[in-house]
């Protein structure tokens, strides 16, 4: 029997990335990294953190197919179906949607050990501040919840962090495990 | 009211080895009792998500018919998926709902709005290419073959009686061996 306990025991229990960058975060560079990661589908509920710098350029782009969904847990299921087809996908949502989808992520991504890759805008996180130190309760609790669930995560708070994307996506698919990228500031479109 | 097993038997006569089928809960137990086949996708991880898994499979393998056998309680938990599927509009997507008015796998309690909801109307409004409701087995048997040859997304509401008492061993649905077998079968096909 596969259980979340077993998965948590074998998965990383904390992020190694505690440094918080202070540079700009460019959406175009994130899209380049997603392309290099062979992401074919972006599944998304819009969020204000990534709206202009990431989602709108993705919607105009001829790269990954954008699937607009009504609620975030749908996206967990869609990404799972695509994963069984060996097609790479990214679920682009906000931390509120991540919290709303915890049960789906628990069942599909963690207990079934599927490579569900999530990019999560942290609503109103203060730039340059670690999510754990945010004044926003909904931001502050995200990393501890991911720790408890045994889910690997990486903070994207500046361009220096974008290099984490491709190896983390490759690792998620190689090991068939979920990964979360936390977007700590609004990416610029260019 | 139809018997759900009769409907599943009628459907099964039109299912090929290449079709991916996603049955949920009590329908899943009836389905695997009829035919345990490698391309049955049985592990959905959370109630309501079968149609979303199915959409992912339909997008990822457009060469395959993807057939979701949903429940009304499950669909009510993920109604927005109808809109998502309507917009994505995969031609290989076929969505059946066994509407028995109960949360059958959770004690048989009534679903909200039982008997008053027009699920096919929901699907039609959401953008499914075709949406039908069947209350008589004979009509369903006559028309199911043609529906499965049509372009999706197609929605079919089957008005059925609650199932008889089942013994439900959920390891048969989402044990690791079941998931691995599906993955291998899809990869090889």
Annotation keywords:
heterodimer; A: 190 residues; alpha/beta; Rossmann fold; 15% strand; globular; disordered N terminus; B: 189 residues; five-stranded parallel β-sheet; 7 strands
Query: What percentage of residues of chain B falls in helices of 4 or more residues?
Result: 40-55%
* Radius of gyration of chain B (Å): 15 Å
**How many strand segments of chain A?**
6
Tell me the radius of gyration of chain A.
15 Å
What's the total helix number of chain B?
9
Give the assembly state of these chains: heterodimer
- Order of the strands making up the biggest sheet of chain B: 1-2-3-7-6
List the total number of helices of chain A: 9
Low-confidence stretches of chain A: 1-17
Spans of chain B of 5+ residues with little confidence (pLDDT < 50)?
none
What does the model show?
The complex is a heterodimer of chains A (190) and B (189). By secondary structure, chain A is an alpha/beta fold. Chain A has a single domain, classed as Thiamin diphosphate (ThDP)-binding fold, Pyr/PP domains (Rossmann fold, 3-Layer(aba) Sandwich). Chain A is built from 9 helices and 6 strands, in the order H-H-E-H-E-H-E-H-H-E-H-H-E-H-E. A 6-stranded parallel sheet of chain A has the order 2-1-3-4-6-5, sandwiched between helices. In chain A, helix 2 (27-36) crosses helix 3 (51-60) and helix 4 (72-84) packs parallel to helix 6 (102-111). The termini of chain A are far apart. Mean pLDDT of chain A is 90; it is low at 1-17. In chain B, helix 1 (4-12) packs across helix 2. Chain B has helices at 4-12, 25-34, 50-60, 72-76, 80-88, 119-126, 137-149, 171-174, 176-188, and strands at residues 20-23, 66-71, 93-99, 102-103, 109-110, 130-134, 154-159. The model of chain B has no long low-confidence stretch (mean pLDDT 95). Chain B is 43% helix and 17% strand. In chain B, the strands form 2 sheets. Chain B has a 5-stranded parallel sheet, with helices on both faces. The N and C termini of chain B lie far apart (37 Å). The longest helix of chain B is centred in the C-terminal third of the chain and has 13 residues, at 137-149. Chain B is an alpha/beta fold. Chain B is globular and about 45 Å long. Chain B is built from 9 helices and 7 strands; from the N terminus they run H-E-H-H-E-H-H-E-E-E-H-E-H-E-H-H. In chain B, strand 4 (102-103) and strand 5 (109-110) form a beta hairpin. Classes of the chains: A alpha/beta (190), B alpha/beta (189). Chains A and B meet through strand 2, helix 4 and helix 6 of A and helix 3, helix 5 and helix 9 of B.
């Amino acid at each position: 029997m596969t259980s979340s306990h077993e998965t948590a025991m074998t998965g990383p229990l904390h992020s190694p990335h505690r440094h918080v960058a202070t540079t700009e975060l460019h959406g175009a560079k994130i899209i380049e990294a997603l392309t290099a990661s062979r992401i074919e589908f972006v599944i998304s509920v819009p969020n204000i953190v990534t709206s202009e710098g990431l989602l709108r350029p993705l919607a105009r782009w001829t790269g990954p197919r954008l699937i607009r969904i009504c609620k975030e847990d749908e996206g967990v299921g869609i990404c799972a179906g695509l994963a069984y087809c060996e097609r790479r996908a990214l679920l682009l949502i906000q931390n509120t949607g991540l919290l709303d989808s915890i049960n789906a992520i628990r069942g599909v991504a963690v207990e079934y050990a599927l490579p569900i890759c999530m990019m999560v805008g942290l609503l109103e996180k203060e730039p340059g501040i670690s999510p754990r130190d945010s004044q926003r309760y909904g931001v502050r609790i995200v990393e501890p919840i991911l720790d408890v669930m045994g889910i690997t995560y990486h903070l994207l708070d500046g361009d220096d962090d974008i290099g984490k994307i491709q190896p983390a996506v490759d690792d998620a698919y190689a090991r068939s495990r979920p990964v979360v990228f936390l977007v700590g500031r609004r990416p610029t479109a260019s | 009211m139809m018997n759900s097993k009769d409907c599943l038997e009628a459907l099964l006569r039109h299912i090929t080895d290449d079709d991916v089928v996603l049955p949920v809960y009590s329908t899943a137990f009836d389905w695997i009792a009829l035919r345990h086949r490698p391309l049955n996708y049985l592990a959905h991880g959370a109630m309501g998500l079968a149609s979303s898994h199915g959409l992912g499979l339909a997008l990822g393998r457009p060469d395959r018919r993807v057939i979701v056998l949903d429940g009304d309680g499950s669909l009510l938990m993920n109604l927005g998926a109808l809109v998502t599927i309507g917009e994505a509009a995969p031609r290989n997507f076929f969505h059946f709902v066994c509407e028995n008015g109960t949360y059958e796998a959770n004690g048989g309690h009534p679903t909200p709005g039982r008997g008053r909801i027009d699920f096919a109307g929901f699907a039609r409004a959401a953008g499914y290419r075709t949406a039908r409701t069947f209350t008589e087995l004979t009509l369903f048997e006559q028309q199911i073959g043609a529906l499965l040859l049509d372009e999706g997304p197609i929605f079919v509401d089957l008005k059925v009686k609650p199932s008889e008492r089942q013994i439900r061993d959920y390891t048969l649905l989402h044990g690791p061996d079941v998931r691995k077998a599906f993955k291998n079968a899809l990869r090889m096909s």
